[in-house]
Amino acid sequence: MNLTEERSQVNETSEEITAADVALSVTTILLSLLICAGNALTIAAIIRSPRLHTLPNMYVMSLAAADLLVGLLMPVLALFFLAPIKNAFNNAKYACLLLFAGLYASCLCSAINMALIATDRYIFITRPFWYERVVTRDVVRGVVAVCWSLAVLMGSVPLYANRFKYDSECDSTKVLLFSFDGIFLPIFSSRAQC
Predict the structure, then answer these.
(1) Which residues pair with 57 in a beta bridge?
(2) Strand partners, 176
(3) pLDDT by residue (tens digit) across 21-52?
């Protein structure tokens, strides 16, 4: 059996949509709706209520925006669980790489924002007078801008550093030179067959 016959055999068997794939996709879409609704409400509450216009809430709003972006990308991820859609990503280099880049950037931004919130609260508690003097609206805006810039820069790495090959599986372990396997391997790698 040659390589072409093996590929066609793999494609024929992997085109089937199982009940587990559909259930996983539906669950992911429902989760996406909840994530988007919750973070949109958080952003709206902070924008509409002047009492919530505080420096710590600037970090919370940045976190909500990053999580909203994650929620908006999740329907694509939900479709990624369906074999025919995932196979379409195998021949679409930039669709495959943009999926990874978008998810990496938004998840990294979310993680960095959580660290910023924790650091902000730590400094506020341990050095309250220094905090009042140094932490201003412009400083927080700068820190949030650096957070987003760093996340976009690190998240865009898959676009220019990858091993993408057409007709190969759009899988983070096969496409990317490196991956954030601890976070993303359970999501993007091939599921083990029971």
Answers:
(1) none
(2) 162
(3) 888 888 889 999 999 999 999 999 999 999 99
CA 125 to chain centre: 31
Measure the CA–CA gap between 116 and 112, rounded to whole angstroms. Answer: 6
pLDDT per residue as tens digits for the range 44-72 = 999 999 999 999 999 999 999 999 999 99
Q: Provide CB contacts within 8 A for 70, sequence distance 6+.
A: 35, 103, 106, 107, 110
For 92, other C-beta atoms within 10 Å of its C-beta total 14
Residue 123 tokens read as 């400094």
How many whole angstroms separate alpha carbon 20 and alpha carbon 31? 16
What is the distance between the alpha carbons of residues 184 and 140, in angstroms, rounded to a whole number? 30
Whose tokens are 């509409």? That residue is 48
C-beta separation of 100 from 188 below 8 A: yes
